[in-house]
Amino acid sequence: MKHIFATLAVSLIFCAGSFAQSTQNLPSLSFDHYALYVKDMNVSAEFYMKALGLKEMDCPIKDGRHRWFYLGNGQELHIIQGDNSKIQMEKNMHICLHTTDIKPYMKHLNEVGIPFESWQGKSGESNVRIDGASQIYIVDPDGYWVEINDANTK
Q1: What's one Pfam family the UniProt record gives for this protein (predicted)?
Q2: Is 132 strand, coil or helix?
Q3: How confident is the model at residue 14 (pLDDT cuts 50, 70, 90)?
Q4: Nearest-CA neighbor of 153 among 103, 95, 111?
Q5: DSSP strand E in 8-153: where?
Q6: pLDDT of residue 8
Q7: Pairing mode, strands 145-149 and 94-98
Q8: Is the per-residue pLDDT at 98 higher than 80?
Q9: How is domain 33-153 classified at the architecture level of CATH?
Q10: What is the CB neighbour count within 10 angstroms for residue 128?
Q11: Which residue stretches of the chain are H helix?
Q12: How confident is the model at residue 24 (pLDDT cuts 50, 70, 90)?
């Protein structure tokens, strides 16, 4: 039995080394887009435009179920109308967007009547993460959480 485990351990070490070596020649990756299933595409589109000021872009898929939005820096949000009932929504699974200052977003969200909260769930408040970034959370019409923070400015 000891020989089986020793052989397995050596095989795993060899495979791990081969895997690491094979990834060294890959070109780098950059983030491209988020895609979210939503119950009502128009309600969700209105939310993202109203809450975050996202600008809609031309969507090449002309099936009436897709809308695309600019997030900046070549990144996009795609919303797709469909059944999202099997997706478990919780704060740990979220989209995160950063800005230079979250205070104007907090003011804007208050003005347009969109509630936000701290990580701890305190309504209308932000919190400071261990890395010094301030953050708030909003929830979209489908229950997806969105974090807004100023992490890249610290």
Answers
A1: Glyoxalase
A2: coil
A3: low
A4: 103
A5: 33-38, 55-57, 66-72, 75-81, 94-98, 127-128, 134-139, 145-149
A6: 46
A7: parallel
A8: yes
A9: Roll (3.10)
A10: 14
A11: 2-23, 41-52, 103-111
A12: confident
